[in-house]
Write a structure and sequence with these properties.
The complex is a heterodimer of chains A (about 240) and B (about 675). Chain A is mainly alpha-helical and about 240 residues long. Chain A is about 55% helix and about 10% strand. A three-stranded antiparallel sheet of chain A has the order 1-2-3, with no helix packed on it. A two-stranded antiparallel ribbon of chain A has the order 4-5. In chain A, a hairpin with a 2-residue loop joins strand 1 and strand 2. The longest helix of chain A is centred in the first third of the chain and has 44 residues. The N terminus and C terminus of chain A are likely disordered. With about 675 residues, chain B is mostly beta strands. Chain B contains four helices and 54 strands. In chain B, the strands form 14 sheets. A four-stranded antiparallel sheet of chain B has the order 2-3-4-5, with no helix packed on it. Chain B has a four-stranded antiparallel sheet with strand order 6-7-8-9, with no helix packed on it. A four-stranded antiparallel sheet of chain B has the order 10-11-12-13, with no helix packed on it. The two termini of chain B are about 50 Å apart. Classes of the chains: A mainly alpha (about 240), B mainly beta (about 675). At the A-B interface, helix 6, helix 7 and strand 1 of A face helix 4 of B. Chain B: It comes from Dicentrarchus labrax.
């Protein structure tokens, strides 16, 4: 290895060093390595060097593997820890496993809602739900904290389909592009017509059909008035001239 | 007539539910109406459109379609189930899961042997109708889109199915598609939904879709014959008359458009479907239609049922030809505890208990008195389980509360020192579910009408509730009892059922005392006079009878009234009387009220002549009239009316405008000058 290095060193630097060497030889100082014969490296030495390097390589590989293993193990432990924190105590789990669910629909609804809740992860709403439903199901337990436990059944899928069907109707009738107004707008009470005849303004107002009949009222306003046509309210400004 | 202090109650937030589907049975003349909350109502068209039966809804039962097969009623909904109803006991008989996802439509063939349902997954499923149940037969070929509407050909061999963007015709026997109606209606952005379809006997198919068109197709060749653009919004429902000469289409605008199969000019022989009339009777979408022989019945999101008689089928200017709007239930949803001044409001999913306010002042008639103490809500009780509340009752002392669903009866005890409510847990086994509940006047007994026209009596006391007796009218009867009244003195109990029978039981002897002679119309309100023990009955045809329980015959006054006949203005009223009360001060007064008016009948005064007008209170102040009907414009809708012990009246009002303002959005229409 040392030999190689030397060779490696001398090889590229040979050309550039060549001139130096000539100048050095001119200065008549002895160059240490050039004139001597190459060093002798025994076979054992190189063998041992090679073996050493291989060992070192293996060692580093092993070390790396161990490091990775260590990392993985640590991560796994961390996950276990988190999972344990999320899970409920073992006795509750046992109880659930053994008790069959009788009122399936109720529990399914609750579980569905709880699943949704879990997505949000809000303790407050869970607490509220617990208060509302505490004591309803025979196989649900109220634990310390904010959880009620129920079993989930397959009806969750059916009500999801029902919800999508209802959403379909809702979107077709009330969704985008359906041109809907609000109930308040549709039922506001007076609507203003105005007809102008020669300086005497005639206002007619018609009330909306709230029950069974329409009633129309006519109002004569004798001196000329300035009427401000606003959309739904009936506002009249008297002109300054005559009242 | 008398002066009363009136408590005008406007805190009952009653909201009716939108109409989703309806089906008319022409043989029995009954209309079945399904509401958005799953409730089912049966109207008897032969008996003044009286709402005979109400089957309460259930959470999750979203009914989309109804179908009569003979006397049997089936419904199908978005929960994927087909339900058959037991109309005798007013409950669902059974449900069958169709396993096809939400069901959009149900239809039976004219022979009454097969039932076809259209499902979300694109299959049309055929069910065989057996005696006590239905059985799945097979699926027709599965399609790519959901099946929104179905119609059988009258011969029973073909079915037309309306889907998204197309219409397909199936052969009912082989299950294969006959042809493809390319249908259509290809719109640029959205798919067009064929909301309703009708298959006529000459192989014409009529379809109504979400692009607002009513299209006439030739079912044999699969070609489009004519398109009528009826509205800018959707055409949601179609109904064809029995003789196939007229069809009606309901739109999202609230209009109902009629088409008739007539020759377009007088000489021509060729008939075609021509658009004739347009009815605008609704403010919101029309989701359900039925075409009877003489009228068009429509219902939709504005929750009102409108019956529009067709003027070419009925005589003009008669009672028959009048437009009828049925906006409110024909039964009482409010119970009043007379002695305690409490009101119980019944909603489908909860009950509310309120105490009426107090006022000290005195004033002239028509004055508004200052309120000393505001009305307060004492208890709000949510129901348990999925079934909606069928009936409820409050005892006169206010200490007991009971409600019933189709599956259970619940009884509660209320304390007023600190308002608290405790459930009575052990109820007798016989008290399983009740159609009507009533407390005795001394609050010691609860009467519940259960199956087979029987009435269960339960005694109430602090410690426990025991079953006392079950009263049965006769063997073999099974009509649901919809009216119960216990007399003040605790001796009599009157029960009226939908078969127009009224049974009176003697509570001291615990057996049937007598049966009132059957009148052809269904009773809508009954009451027993506290002093004279006369039973007063008002029927759906507005007839009033008074029956003496002691003598077991009609009273003199009643015979006189029948002989002379009721005043024509009284008979022309179109809402039934729902409540009768008596005044403790004046035994000759009978208080009646219906949805829009309340009146006092004074039995001591002579009956009005046929020609005299019936006036309201304003005009009457100067005139002495024998039978006065008080029309006060302030009473928009008067739900029940009761007399409290301190001789004041409680009137519960619900202005229509309050209900309208809470309905979902109607379509935006441009009105002139806005």
């Amino acid at each position: 290895m040392a030999k190689k290095q030397q060779r490696g060193e001398t090889a590229p630097s040979s050309k550039s060093a060549g001139t130096d060497r000539r100048t050095e030889s001119f200065s008549l100082t002895l160059a240490s390595s050039d004139d001597e014969a190459p060093e002798e490296v025994t076979f054992e030495d190189s063998k041992s060097a090679a073996l050493r390097s291989m060992k070192e390589a293996l060692d580093t590989a092993r070390r790396e593997k161990e490091l990775l293993k260590e990392k993985r193990r640590k991560r796994q432990e961390l996950f276990q820890e988190q999972k344990k924190r999320k899970l409920l105590p073992t006795d509750v789990l046992e109880e659930i496993d053994s008790a069959p669910s009788k009122e399936q629909k109720q529990s399914e609804d609750e579980a569905e809602e709880e699943q949704q809740e879990a997505g949000e992860g809000e303790d407050d709403s869970r607490r509220k739900k617990k208060r509302r439903r505490s004591g309803k199901l025979p196989h649900s337990r109220n634990l310390k904290g904010n959880y009620t436990v129920t079993t989930v059944t397959e009806r969750a899928a059916a009500s999801f389909q029902q919800q999508t069907a209802e959403d379909f109707i809702q979107s077709r009738l009330y969704g985008a592009g359906s041109c809907r107004s609000t109930s308040k707008e549709a039922f506001t009470v007076p609507r203003l017509h105005y007809i102008c005849t020669e300086g005497v303004f005639l206002c007619a107002f018609i009330t909306m059909n709230t029950h069974t009949h329409r009633s129309a009222g006519l109002m004569w306003i004798n001196p000329p008035l300035k009427i401000v046509p606003s959309k739904c309210t009936f506002s009249v400004c008297l002109s300054k001239q005559q009242v | 007539m008398g002066e009363f202090k009136v408590h005008r109650v406007r805190f009952f937030d009653y909201m009716p539910s939108a109409i989703r589907a309806m089906a008319f049975n022409s043989r029995t003349e009954r209309l079945a109406v399904a509401r958005a909350d799953g409730a089912l109502e049966i109207f008897n068209f032969a008996d003044h459109y009286f709402q005979e039966k109400v089957i309460p809804g259930q959470d999750g039962r979203a009914v989309e379609a109804l179908c009569w097969v003979g006397q049997r009623l089936f419904s199908a909904g978005l929960n994927g189930e087909i339900t058959e109803y037991d109309l005798e006991n007013m409950r669902p008989r059974y449900t069958v899961e169709a396993y096809g996802g939400p069901i959009w439509t149900i239809s039976s063939n004219s022979q009454g042997t097969l039932l076809a349902v259209g499902c979300e997954d694109g299959t049309v499923k055929m069910f065989e109708l057996l005696d006590e149940r239905i059985r799945f037969q097979r699926n027709l070929e599965r399609q790519k889109g959901r099946i929104i509407s179905l119609s059988w050909h009258p011969s029973g061999t073909l079915i037309a199915a309306g889907m998204m963007d197309m219409i397909r015709i199936f052969d009912a026997e082989t299950g294969k598609e006959m042809q493809l109606d390319p249908g259509v209606i290809a719109s640029k952005s959205k798919e067009v939904v064929v909301w309703s379809i009708a298959f006529l006997s000459d192989h014409t198919i009529v379809s109504g879709d979400s692009a607002g068109k009513v299209q006439i197709w030739d079912g044999l060749t699969g070609t489009l014959v004519k398109t009528h653009l009826v509205t800018k919004w959707d055409v949601l429902a179609l109904a064809v008359s029995q003789d196939e000469s007229s069809l009606v289409a309901g739109t999202s605008e609230g209009t109902v458009v009629q088409f008739q199969f007539i020759a377009s000019t007088v000489d021509q022989q060729d008939k075609e479907w021509v658009r004739t009339r347009t009815f605008k009777n609704h403010s919101h979408d029309v989701r359900a239609l039925a075409h009877t022989e003489t009228a068009v019945v429509s219902g939709g999101m504005d929750t009102q049922l409108v019956v529009r008689p067709l003027l070419d089928k009925v005589e003009k200017n008669t009672q028959e030809s009048a437009l009828r709007k049925i906006a409110f239930p024909h039964r009482s949803l409010v119970c009043c505890a007379k002695k305690a001044g409490l009101l119980l409001f019944q909603f489908p999913d909860h009950l509310e208990l309120w105490r009426v306010g107090e006022s000290d002042g005195l004033g002239k008639p028509g004055d508004s008195l200052p309120v000393k103490r505001n009305p307060e809500k004492l208890i709000q009780l949510k129901r348990k389980g999925e079934d909606h509340i069928c009936c409820s009752a409050l005892s006169p002392c206010g200490g007991w509360l009971a409600y019933s669903t189709v599956s259970a009866v619940r009884l509660y005890r209320i304390q007023y020192n600190n308002i608290s409510i405790t459930k009575v847990s052990k109820l007798p086994k016989d008290l399983r579910s009740a159609h009507q509940l009533c407390f005795s006047s001394d609050s010691s007994k609860l009467f519940a009408s259960s199956s087979h026209s029987s009435v269960v009596i339960v005694s109430l006391n602090q410690l426990e509730c025991k079953h006392l007796h079950t009263l049965k009218p006769r063997s073999g009867e099974s009509r649901p009892v919809h009216l119960l009244f216990a007399s003040e003195d605790g001796k009599w109990l009157a029960a009226a059922n939908a078969d127009c029978e009224i049974h009176v039981y003697n509570l001291h002897k615990l057996k049937l005392h007598c049966t009132v002679p059957v009148h052809s119309s269904c009773p809508t309100a009954i009451a027993i006079h506290p002093v004279t023990s006369n039973l007063v009955v008002v029927h759906a045809d507005q007839q009033i009878f008074e029956y003496s329980l002691m003598q077991k015959e009609y009273t003199e006054w009643s015979r006189k009234l029948q002989k002379q006949g009721l005043h024509s203005l009284w008979l022309e009223r179109d809402t039934p009387v729902t409540h009768i009360s008596y005044s403790p001060k004046n035994p000759a007064h009978i208080f009646l009220h219906d949805m829009f008016m309340f009146c006092i009948i004074d039995q001591s005064l002579p009956l009005p002549e046929a020609k005299t007008m019936l006036y309201n209170q304003m005009t009457l102040r100067s005139l002495p009239e024998p039978e006065r009907i008080r029309h006060s414009h302030a009473f928009k809708i008067s739900l029940p009316l009761c007399l409290l012990e301190d001789h004041s009246l409680v009137v519960v009002e619900r202005p229509l405008l309050d209900i309208m303002s809470q309905l979902p959005a109607p379509v935006r229409q441009k009105k002139f000058a806005t």
